[in-house]
Design the sequence.
């Protein structure tokens, strides 16, 4: 377990401001935030590359706040891999073992084994500059993991890669997380990565943590406008909340009334994720609490999915698969019915 | 082929002035003595010993510059601190002041009555008119080449690479020796050879601090004053050949050294 208590650090344009966090053993934990939010510095503080101005860091039951990185038992992988350019793939991976004065034979066995695992055995004698991005990242991962760290820290590990390599590596990360029985902290600005990989997420904003929770909590129930904006809920509607019946909350937006299972009173923002809204061309009776009649105002073709805006008094964004878009025979101005559940509406 | 416009042609003509201005005297010097005179001078013990003094002292000065200059360069490349600009300026001062002034400044401190010379002379190290004097004169005027070049080398090594090495268990000093130093070595060697060549060609500070034992540059001057051009030219050719050879080695290293830069 990693525990961070009231951590602060101020250096040049980077700032970490009184962050407290707990990361469970064997979690896949993601720091999600826009660039310049301080998430890389937070990661480097955990690795020991910086010492904080104040606050404490614990790993397991050990305080490591003032421990140099070489004594923390962490592996680190950077976006630009940071392979040693004068060493071959083999030598790069063997680096940590050489430092530990492991015998030559054992090094050979262990490096062979891990190169095998990552499918890079054929690259053993190549220099990093001759490798593709994906190959470099696999080498960097092997180099970090061969010393069996308790924690693997990754700073934007997928950002420099093309889409296909990225998908491959996402599977690789899942495999590593399982096989190495390791706590992973992964920094990214891409919420798709977070969706696919994270057990838990911390949203980082201007050196502070905006929200911590499971992927579902953060994506379904963003705590404030920043988180909602950042995780991509596009329907954010202002309104006044009052207690309704059946322990539901009624939100009057001025144009429509939305029901939510979140309990809140007064001025609120309601968010509904586009994929939680269903659309039909006829009235359908469902258990969904929120049903509205409106008309299509805009249609965006995003390739495999179609994004629509529907005016039901409020403008709402929703998405359809290309197939259902075709089946519904939609066009701008067409009258439609939309429904969403009260549980899909979160209030903040 | 790219079409040449008038501006390019005009600038090329203007630009060739400096190239020719440097090249013509050097080429002319190389052919203005005969092989016989050069080989006679190569057998002259005074010439040989002066060449030895120059090359040897310059080598020692360069080694000292590396020993103290590389750590300084690493600090300058990695850290921001109060007074950093001042330190950088101090290192560059010898480039901008006349070398005879450097010689006088050194003499005042290193003479047997000076603040550094006095305690060292008790240990038997004398600077005036001795090899150590030549060495410090050379060190003073040429050490900045090592510092500046090494610094550039260290700056080209991403600090995050060192950080990764730390997480892999390598302490800071070890990381310096196995990661940073090998990657900056090309720049350090280039700086060292420039430093060596500059040290061999030093004259102004040397004649003030240590006219004797004769360094090659001092010998050329002495022969010129006493016997004129015909006696000084062969020695000049020998010295310039050594400097040019070093210079070509630098160019070869610059070209041939495997660079690890990102693709």
Sequence:
């Amino acid at each position: 377990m990693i525990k961070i208590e009231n951590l602060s650090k101020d250096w040049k344009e980077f700032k970490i401001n009184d962050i407290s966090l707990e990361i469970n053993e064997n979690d896949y934990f993601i720091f999600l935030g826009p660039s310049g939010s301080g998430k890389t510095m937070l990661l480097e503080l955990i690795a020991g590359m910086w010492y904080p101005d104040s606050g404490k860091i614990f790993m397991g039951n050990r305080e490591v706040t003032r421990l140099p990185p070489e004594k923390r038992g962490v592996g680190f992988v950077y976006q630009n891999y940071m392979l040693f350019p004068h060493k071959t793939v083999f030598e790069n991976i063997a680096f940590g073992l050489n430092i530990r004065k492991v015998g030559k034979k054992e090094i050979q066995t262990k490096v062979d084994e891990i190169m095998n695992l990552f499918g890079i055995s054929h690259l053993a004698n190549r220099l990093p500059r001759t490798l593709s991005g994906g190959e470099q990242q696999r080498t960097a991962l092997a180099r970090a993991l061969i010393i069996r760290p308790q924690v693997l820290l990754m700073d934007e590990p997928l950002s420099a890669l093309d889409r296909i390599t990225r998908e491959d590596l996402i599977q690789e990360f899942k495999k590593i997380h399982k096989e190495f029985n390791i706590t992973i902290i992964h920094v990214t600005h891409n919420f798709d990565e977070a969706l696919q990989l994270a057990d838990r997420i911390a949203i980082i904003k201007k050196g502070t943590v905006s929200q911590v929770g499971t992927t579902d909590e953060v994506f379904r129930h963003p705590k404030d406008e920043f988180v909602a904006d950042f995780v991509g809920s596009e329907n954010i509607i202002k309104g006044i909340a009052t207690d309704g019946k059946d322990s539901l909350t009624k939100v009057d937006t001025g144009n429509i009334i939305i029901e939510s299972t979140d309990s809140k009173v007064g001025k609120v923002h309601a968010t509904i994720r586009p994929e939680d809204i269903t659309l039909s061309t006829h009235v359908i009776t469902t258990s969904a609490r929120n049903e509205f009649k409106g008309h299509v105002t805009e249609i965006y073709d995003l390739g495999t999915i179609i994004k629509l805006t529907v005016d039901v008094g409020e403008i709402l964004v929703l998405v359809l698969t290309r197939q259902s878009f075709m089946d519904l025979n939609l066009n701008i101005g067409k009258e439609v019915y939309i429904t969403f559940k009260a549980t899909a509406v979160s209030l903040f | 082929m790219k079409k040449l416009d008038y501006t390019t042609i005009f600038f090329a003509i203007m630009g060739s002035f400096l190239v020719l201005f440097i090249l013509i005297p050097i080429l002319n010097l190389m052919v203005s003595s005969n092989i016989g005179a050069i080989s006679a001078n190569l057998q002259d013990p005074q010439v040989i010993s002066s060449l030895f003094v120059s090359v040897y002292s310059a080598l020692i000065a360069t080694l000292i510059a590396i020993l103290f200059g590389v750590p300084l360069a690493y600090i300058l490349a990695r850290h921001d601190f109060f007074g950093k600009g001042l330190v950088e300026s101090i290192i560059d001062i010898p480039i901008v002041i006349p070398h005879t002034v450097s010689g006088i400044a050194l003499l005042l401190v290193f003479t047997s009555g000076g603040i550094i010379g006095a305690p060292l002379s008790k240990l038997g190290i004398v600077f005036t008119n001795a090899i150590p004097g030549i060495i410090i004169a050379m060190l003073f005027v040429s050490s900045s080449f090592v510092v500046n070049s090494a610094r550039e080398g260290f700056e080209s090594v991403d600090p995050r690479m060192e950080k990764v090495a730390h997480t892999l268990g390598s302490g800071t000093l070890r990381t310096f020796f196995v990661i940073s130093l090998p990657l900056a070595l090309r720049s350090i060697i280039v700086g060292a050879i420039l430093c060596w060549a500059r040290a061999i060609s030093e004259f102004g500070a040397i004649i003030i601090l240590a006219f004797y034992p004769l360094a090659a540059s001092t010998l050329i001057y002495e022969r010129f004053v006493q016997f004129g051009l015909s006696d000084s030219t062969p020695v000049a050719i020998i010295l310039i050949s050594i400097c040019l050879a070093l210079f070509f080695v630098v160019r070869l290293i610059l070209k041939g050294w495997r660079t690890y830069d990102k693709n």
Observations:
- Residues 138 and 192 of chain B are 13 Å apart (CA to CA).
- The mean pLDDT of chain B is 91.
- Chain B touches chain A at residues 158, 160-161, 163-172, 174, 179, 182-183, 260-263 (CB under 8 Å).
- The radius of gyration of chain B is 22 Å.
